[in-house]
Please model this.
Amino acid sequence: MNKRLLWFLPVIILGIMLGTLLALPGFVAAQSHRPAMERFASTLTGRDVHIAGKLSLTLLPHPTLTATHITIAGPDNEVISAKALSLDIAVLALLRGQLAARTLNLDSPVIAFPWPLPGGARAVAPPPWLAALHAHLSNASISLGQVAFTGVSADLFTSAGGAVSIAGNGMLSGRNLALSLALGRSGLDGAAPLSGHASEGPDSLTFTGTLDGASTVSGRASFTLPDQITGAASITGDGTQLAFSDLTLGQGQASLSGSAVFSFATKSLRASLMGRNLDLGQFETPPLWAAGVALDVTLNASAVTLRGQVFPAVTMHLTSGPAGFAIQALNLSLPGGGALTGSGAMAAGGELSGQLRLAVPDSAVLLAAYHLPPLPDWDAAQLSATLAGTAARPLLQGIAGTLGQDRVTGDLVLTRRHAAGQLSFNHLSLGPLAAWAGQSPPGAFSASLEIHAAQAEAGPVSLSNLAADAALDGTLNVRYFSASVYGGLAAGSFSLDGAGRLTSAQGFIDIPSAAPLAKIIPAAYTPPPALLAPRLSVVVAARGKAGMLAASAVARLGQFTVTASPAIDMVHNTASGALSVQHPEAILVARMFGMDQGLVFPGAGSASLRASFTASPGLYGLNDFVLSFGALNASGGVLVRNGVASGQIDAGTLALPPVPGTMQFPGTLPLRGRLGLSVQQVLYGGTPVLGPAMAALDWSGSGATLDLAQAALGGGTVSGSLGMALSATAAPSFSATLLARNVAPGAVALPLAFPYALTGGTLTGSATLSAQGYGLKSVLATLGGNGALTASNGVLRGFALADFAAALGKADAARGLYRALVRGTTPFTTLNLAATLADGNCSFTTASLDAPAGHVSGSGGVDLYDRAQALRLVFTPAHVAPPVSATLLVLGNWEVPRHVAQLKAALAWKAPAPAAAAPPLPPPPPAPPAGQ
Model:
């Protein structure tokens, strides 16, 4: 051989190789060689490779193999398809029998792996002939069983020994996730270490574990979920189920722990969980239900929140399926030791069914926990009901049980913090309910209810057959109510604002007799039974806003008609307006109050009061009034300010009743005050006793004083004061200091002491008196003091002093003298009386009468209580010579006195003999001549 040819051998070989390389692209691209290339690729990769598109090879600047529309099917049913495949090839590694691809670009590949992987970790591990690979996936779709990722853009790396890792992002169930996954080299047992991380913004999942040859995944996962939920769990999964142990979830103060198993075969989740501070409202529509996952969950949690309310604890067993879900063994603990127990179910359409029981041993604690005031009459509750309706509007049917001592039945529809329906009670106290509604925080609870009660109380008023339709929503609107009351009917409607103030009202009450109302009136103000006996009807209407209310009322009680039209300020608790009271017969009104004096008092006429009134916490009374009561008529105003009364009363005629035999007096008066009095005429028992008068009435808790400045009496005047002192342990005491001037006794028919009375003249008198007792008799029995009287130029009825003088010396002197001492009248020039009084006995210290007909003196006394006297009168006629006197004893009862005349001296009186006649007088001397 030519040795020179050896130098050219490398050149020739290189040329042959170069020629081969230059010819290789054409060979690869030839359609006739594609089946051979597919068989070669299948043999090389151990996969079934099919090339549906173009196949090309470029050598410069480095070898690149490109194929379009390829499909690679693996022995474990995994399938990879791509629109295009571009592979950079390392020639030296290829000459060693290994494929070392620097870059693999897959455009829109679809990669489908079955789960579980039949080959376990080896199913996804790179083949031995693949030395290294960096693959880039663009717009890929990757599925692992039923878990499908779309729009994946990722980088995949392999290395010798079977390790593979992938990092990128893609869409899973509409969520854009950042993904990373690393599968290590399989060990002798076929298990390979597996780790991964997925995240979307702040939400992430991290897993560290193994994937074995049976496609069983086990390891520990930690995750951060939406709404700042964090957790961790030990996970074991295979082709049949995914098991979670040591599961913990946390969200702020809320926590959940336990275990769970998810079955792929039945698509169901079975869990046993314990929790704390859970908001159960977050699980009302969980995603697993919507996904058709069947649940079997046992939950035991404390401090749970449901529909905005916090409860101490809950235990329940929840199951769900295509038909809906059910809760068994529910026990929801309530504040105060109560519990809501039972079972229920919700169908797929939201329909509810079940049975519930409520036990509340202390309702005050329960209500306080939700910032609601207590209901004293309902201190406990025991209720049961059938659950129906829907999840949005639960219906409690057939409610039955007790609230406190009251039995209740009915139906309720519940929504968030709202109840609607109807309830029936055997007994109901309306006062505490109205107070509760007024104290409840606005918006805390709302309700629209029809309420029925066989028996009810509105304060002290007893009702039966109560029916009401009411709404509570921060205000109380009783749209209608009716009830039987005291044998009659009451009906109407009213509204209260959030502060419990009345904003509108209309209604009526009609009862056959007002007598039952006596028991609701304070004892100090209880009217007489005769006043309350007739039929009562009342019509009321009121309306307003912003704390102002305009009201009107008309009441008819027998023949009484009462009207009022006040304006009510509920912010300041004041009222003012017009008031009228009318009755056609004042005499009948007086009779109702125990003053049956016929025409004597108050006289013929009607009873009428027209006034404007005011009422507030510190001020109330009649600003001005006009009163007519038989013969009495008056006007003025009386106001009470902070417990002190003041005012002025001007009366045309002040009619006073006769003092009754017995009277009731309180131990103390509720007010103190002062009233000015101006009267044109005073009638006592229908008889005029005083003319124009000015006085002032002062009183306090311990008594009253009437200061009489001046009053016209019989053409003269009277002044002084009258007092009354009260005691809680003794009878009231009375006092009087009076001064009368220039009084004509005949004009007032003033009795001195029967059978003696003044019928003319003028008198001046004074008296200071005191007494004690509950009526006129007891006052007279205790009357004490002193008095004096001086009269002039009058006439005294009871004896005739002139007739006594005329009867002296007559043949029938005995009869004439006696008659003159026991009947007739005597004109006098002066009369003086003075007396002291003690225990109702009046003892005369001075008693004398001077008259043109003579002089009378007296002594003795008068018993005012027994209306008796024991008087000794001495009569001395004038111009009688010789002088003579007679004594008369007046004894016994006033009306039928017994007279004992001592006439011995008068009967023995004889007129003196006439004097002898005087001699005649001599005639007078003659008169002197004129001019002398």
